[in-house]
Fold this sequence. Notes:
16% helix, alpha+beta
Amino acid sequence: MYITAGRVTVNGQTALLGQRADLEQDDVRLDGKPLASKAEPVYILLNKPRGYVTTLSDEKGRRTVADLVKDCGTRVYPVGRLDLDSEGLLLLTNDGDLAQRLLHPRYETPKVYHVWVRGEVEDAVERLAQVTDLNGEPIRPAQVKFLHWETKEALLKLSITIHEGKNRQVRRMCAACGLEVARLRRVREHTLSLGRLRSGQWRYLFPAEIQALKAEN
């Protein structure tokens, strides 16, 4: 059977027996090929707030990013992840082909984060830029810049650019350098920038932004 053989995927995830899918809204594939014509492609840029999980549904009943974009008129799914306590730029789409290309490790897409840290902040920029291993997992050196010092909260604000999508990579880098992350916000990914989009708000991508994303891949 195709499903038990692992040949069917739904929205990029291997399908399970008994799982339901809507061929008009979900990206259902057999051996990587679409089973049905998909709805008109939709591309959304969301400023994810803290306290939301990057899934379409959550077994623990937590708030999800799907709740924030439910009025967009179609089912879209996130490209990549931001953890529960992180915020900022998140792309959602029903274009499975583009999503799969954007997530492929070979592209090593740059991702820019603004990070507020406390703790062992002396020489933090230099030390973070020298991290090339996370618990035995090699990573490319990050580009780290000092932005400013927030005296009232005693927080150092940094810009950190990474090229891989390792699980909680920026937080793990900071922990390895004795830094506690007070806030983490993604401001740029692929060719997209967060701009002035307010927390919890979303917008459709402009045609030029869609073109740029596809040109990158």
